[in-house]
Structure formats: C-alpha cells, structure tokens
Amino acid sequence: MSVRTNRPRRRLLTSMAAVFAAGAFVVGCTSNEPEEEDQPAAAETGGGDDGDGGSGNDEPGETVVIGFSGPEADHGWLAAVNDSAIAEAESYEDVELRTAEGTNDANLQISQIETFINEGVDAIVLLPTDGAQLTEVAIRAMEAGIPVVNVDREFSSPFAARATILGDNHGMGISAGTYACQLIEENGIADPVIAEIAGIDSLPLTQDRSRGFAEALEACGQEVDNRVAAEFTVESGEEQAANLLQAAPQIDIIWNHDDDQGVGVKQAFDNAGRDEFFFIGGAGSANAMQWIQDGEMEATILYPPTQAADGIRLARLIAQNKGMSDLVQVEVPRRIVLNAPVVNADNVEDYLHLGFES
Amino acid sequence: MSDQTPASPPAGATATTPPADEHRRIEAAAAEEGETRSGFVRFMSSPFGRNLGLILALLVLCAVGAFTAGDRFVDTDNMVTILRFASIIGVVSIGMTFVIIGGGIDLSVGAIVALSSVWATTLATQTMAEDTHWLLMVFVACAVGVGCGLVNGILIAYGGMAPFIATLAMFAAARGLAEIISEKRTQLVDVRGLVDTINGEFLGIPVLVWIFAAVSTIGWVLLNRTTFGRRTIAVGGNATAARLAGIAVKRHTVLLYVVLGLACGIAGIMLTARTGTGSGTHGQLYELDAIAAVVIGGTLLTGGRGTIVGTIIGVLIFTTLTNVFTLNNLDSSTQAVAKGAIIVIAVLLQQRVSVRSADSS
User: Fold this and answer.
1) Under 8 Å between Cβ of A279 and A288
2) Which terminus of chain B faces fewer neighbouring Cβ atoms within 10 Å, N or C?
3) What pTM, to 2 d.p., does this model score?
C-alpha cells in the first residue's frame, strides 16, 4: 500500500522500534510469579496420588475429551476454581481438556457450549455465569448425549445436568453461626454484639449464607445486631467495614462472608485500630489462612475453590462409565453438596493447600 | 424548521428549483465527498475496496482457524455456531451503524438490551402472553427499545445534549431500571412458544440467524435505497448543509436513535429466547462490541460514511476470532489483546487510506 514515499515508512520503523523497546521493558515488569515457590497453591491439589480407597478409578482408562467453561476470573476465588480445574485435568493422562474459560456474557458462554456440542466432546463441566441463563444450552447438550456436570451455580431445570456439585452456602452460614455460639460460650461473653458483613445482597448465595447464620445464632439465643453488605471486592469491603465500625463502637464477633472482600475489611479494621472482636471470614483465601496463622483472624469458613476440579473428576468418571469407588452405587451421584468446615488455628495446616490468592 | 433563511442557491440554480433536487444534490455531495481521486487509492477508499480489505481479513482469520483447528473449524455446525453467536450483537451493530453514520454515538445499547429483556419477561407480560400469544413479548421488547431510543434521540436533538452524555445517562438508568424491575433476579421464560420458535430452526438454519439476515437486508435497503438512508449520510456528513437543504435534522436524529432502539429491542428478545431468561446482566459491554464492529467495518466515527456490509463483516471478524480462540484453548485475556490490536490496525489502515487520498486530491 505504501509504494510512493519512503519517509513515512522509515518514521514508522523508528517508532515501531521505540514501541518494541518500551514493550520489552514493560513485559519485563509484568511478571506476577512469587519470588519463592514453597507454598503449594490451590492448583496442585489434583492427581492420582491421593488415597482413593484402593480402587482402580485413577488408573488410566479410555481417553475422554472434556469441555470446561467458567465465568471470568474477576476475583481470587473464581481464578482458583479455573486454575484447579485445569491442573486437575492435566494430572490425568486420559483426559483431554478443552477450556473456554472467562466470560460474564451469557451469549458468549452459550456459544462456547455450542462449540463443545459441535465438537462432540465426551462431557462438559460448566460453571455458568448465571445458572438460569445457561440452562437452555445445557439441556441441548444433554439431548445431544453429552453429560453435563454443573458446578456451583445451579441450573433452573433438572434435565440440564447429569451431575451437580455445589458448595454449601446455607451450610457456611450454619458453620459460622455455630462457631460464633461456641466462641460466646467458651469466652463467657455476656450480651454479645454480633455483626455480619455480607456479600452482594441480591444473590441467592448471600441470602442462603445469611439465613444459615441467623438460624445457627438463634439456636443459642443470639441474633445479628449490625449487618452491612459489600460486593465481594476489596474496595466495597473496606467501605462497608468502615461504616460498620462507625455504627458499632463495641463488637464481639464479626462474620465476613467473603475473604476476597476481606482484604478490604481487614484494612478498615487496621485503619480504625480496632481488634476487640473475633473476626471470622468466609471462602478460605491464602490471606485469611495466613492471618489465622499469625493470630490476626479467628477462623474462616471454607467454600472450596476445588469444585470445578471435582467436576472434572466426576465428568471423567461419567464419560468412562465408572462409579465413585467409595460408594456402593455403581453410578456417579446426581448431586453432591460439599461440606463447609470451620478453619481455625487448630486445623489451618490441613487446609493451607486449598487457600487461594485473592 | 430551517427555511427561515434560505440558502443562497449555487450558481446556475434558479429560484424555482424544486427542493427535492436540492436535497438530492447535497445528499449526493455529502455521500460522494472525495470521489475525485485516482487509481488504487480511490478503489481502496470506495465502499467496495474497503469491504474487500475486510473480506480479506476475514478470510485470513478463517485460514488461521482452518489451519489450527482443522475439521473442527471447517464444519457446517461450527459455521452455524459462529453465525448464531454473531446474530444478536450483529442486530445491535446494524442499528449502531445508522447512528454513527448520522454523526452520533450510543453507549446505552447493552443497557437497553437488558431492560427490554427484563420488561418482556416480567410476570405480568408473561401472563398476558400466555393468554394471548408469545408475539406480545416480542412487541413489548421492541416497544421498550423504541421508547429508550426515543428518549435518547429527543435529549440529543431537542435537549441539545452531547450524544456521549445523553446515552451515558441512559446506559446507567436503563440497567438500573432493569435491576429494579427484575429485583436483580434472573427471570425465567415460561412461555415455551417464544423460546422454541426464536431459539429454534427454520429450514435447518437457526431462527436467530434468519432474524439477523432480515435485519441486515432491511438495514442495507434503508441505507442505500431510501431517502432515509441518503438523509442519514447527509446529516452525518455535514449537519449544517443538510439543514440548509431543508432536511429536518433534529427529527431525523431522533429517528436514528429510534431505529437503534428498535434494533436493541429485537436483540433483547433474541437474547431472551437464546438464554431462556430476562436479566439485568444481559448485554454487558455490547456498546463496545457494537462500536468496534462498526468502526472496523469502515464507518467513520465522525459520521457521513459507512456501510452495512462492512459492519456485518466487522461483527463476523470478532465472532470468528472468538471462535478460533475457543477452538484453540486460548484464554480470553489473550483474545482481548488480539481484539484491541485488530481495532488499532483497522483504524490505522483506514486513516492512512483517507490521508493519502486527501493528499492526492
């Protein structure tokens, strides 16, 4: 196209060179790899080396192609979900993973699933950006004979998934509330002030968590005195926690639903110089586990980021017509709800490998 | 509204020149601005030449797809998947082409898509649709789109607001309203007729793709074969000249935003059928995708020039890119970088062509 003059082209070359030089410099600064690699990340959970009751399920079988699609990893927990799923698939030599990770656009995620259907994958692991919005296409996959494993956000139809694996949001609330009751009893706190920092209030998962928390507290005759809702982001956590501290000059127990927003929550505590309360978190990030080890946080309630990794395992078993070896039933169950245990100073060592970076 | 001070007629025109001729002259002048160029440059900056470059880009992309993904890419089902994915954003982009050619911009399209999908799936609408016909939901979505477009257009044309600001306000307000109406929940569609029809197939091709084809055809005819289209180009090319020529520029501007609003309503009901839901989270970032597709397609952001075919190819380039990335297991971050690079390259090429042609004229 540029046949006539040479000068602009030479100028273009110079500027290109400058751009590349700058680019090389910038690229040198973008690495996010930690300096030392001694902390096992969530990504390394997988594989055939765990004890599995001596069954042959982890023995290589017929090679299966699994399609995996998840939402955009816009916070640490979701990033850990994606990473651990991919790592899990890599640990099996008989699994070929097709990933289409990373979108919050239902239209795009639907087309990703359609692509998997066209390719005729053997199974699909789907963490939908919204359960209801992906139901139609999941039904179509099932009708095409491809088993769908639904992770974390449930479809609106029972015909859309062969197996469903979920974290237990209601159970998280129960665990947090029960633990709070235990703390009150052990420390003999009379007339405790209990506060709650929820996540996005419109989400069913937040409502489930709050309901469980209230139910468990009610069992020991307590109730939530102050409640605010953040948005799972550091910024909103800081803002809402600061408001909360203003509203309540003396607090005994705080449950924060989410450790990603917990970074901001903790910052607000530090800014205000307040630490008179037991601080309980949720989800189980690496930060939170570090704080627990350092004595800066009482406990966190686990919401496993390995759900999609478990989804990959289930999909592999289903595609290979295997059952779960620890169950007598010969088929993979239709629905698995994961436990939401309390992680505190006593057992944090056992859960460190599940901690995700927020 | 513009005839109080008649334009001084060009030499040779008599006072009795019928206004229609004057329209045509100015419209033609605006449309064929810079037509006095020579050779290669003229060819490349003609609509056909520009589209040829785009088609080449699309072919290169397809070749990359065929080379890297083989049979999985070159497959009828895969082509259908690309088209089905392209159809919704494509309909929005066709509407956006009109607004941008007319010298405007609309940042609120994604929010309007969300609002129309939510409004069409409220319990009240669905109950009425079950009593009557699912087409009622289509009507509601389109009406909501037209309503939003009307508000945008009136604010811009008669309120004197900059399009960027007026539609930014709509961007915030429409999505907020969608969240209020839906109470931030995802509304399921219980009217099976809507989902089964629009998300189904006709003659082996998805109905969504048929709708995209129909909207594209209507858009092409509207832009290239009607007074409306010529006026759009005239208004975008030089609003003052168009006004002096007797075109009701303000009314026309309103109409452009109404056309886009209607396109958003159609896209809203398409997305509703495709997902089986109405939700305030639908249509996120559609404004950027649509503007990018239109600009890639050779439409000038300053208005006055652009083609429907270019826009369609622009949409296909982005959706094919996404498909190729998905087939090759590449993540969305890399894809976003590639998308950005394509936009920059396309616009730089266009600028070079137009600068060169300006020099040589």
Assistant:
1) no
2) N
3) 0.76
